[in-house]
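Handoff note, outgoing to incoming analyst
You'll be picking up this chain. Sequence as last confirmed:
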Amino acid sequence: MTPTVQALDPETFAQLRRMPLFLGLAEDDTRILVGSASVQFYPDSVPLFDRGMPADRLFLVLDGHVEIFLDENNRRSILEMAKSPAMLGEAALFTDGRYANGARAAGHARVLAIPAEAFRTVLDTRFDLTQRMLATMSMRLRGMITQIAELKLKSAAQRVGGFLLGLTESRDGRAVVKFPYDKRLAADYLGMTAESLSRALQRLSAVGVKSRADNVVEIADLRQLHDFCVEDEE
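Most recent structure output, in case you need it:
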């Protein structure tokens, strides 16, 4: 199955200008960077790119989620579940670069695909834009380091709780959230089995979390769940 491809529309362009890479950038400069880009919609599990492929495009996640993974010895390791405003395929910034990992849609993904050669041509003459690109890459790297730290330091219930908190912009009161993709995939991302995720959800019932049908979860008190996720466990 191939992605649906559309031209960059005014609404998406306005969305881009609110992303960290383009925030505060003059409209003309933004148009220079994305002038040859297209909007692509990927259904569930359809790959954006595979490891080792020539990195001919850079991707910005507009909506949905993208699974970043490595396959080694018939085993798949999920490195990241990227969402807006993540930038993917940084190898495209280097001539003859190749993608260091695979990427595929999780649930669905709408992305901006920017041809690498055109993007590199702009960066070669605009050091200020190169600095923005490096800052965006640094921000994503910090997020991945935080994720690794949580895998090492947090319990399964705390990791699941933190994942649920990330599904809502609210910080207080009650919330109802839904897993954005299959629970088994979420479990892999959180470094646990599907059975461990179910047990973690059961444990979270003690702090007001209730799992319902259709991957829906009720959170009675967001602040209480947050406090549980940040406390040190013996």
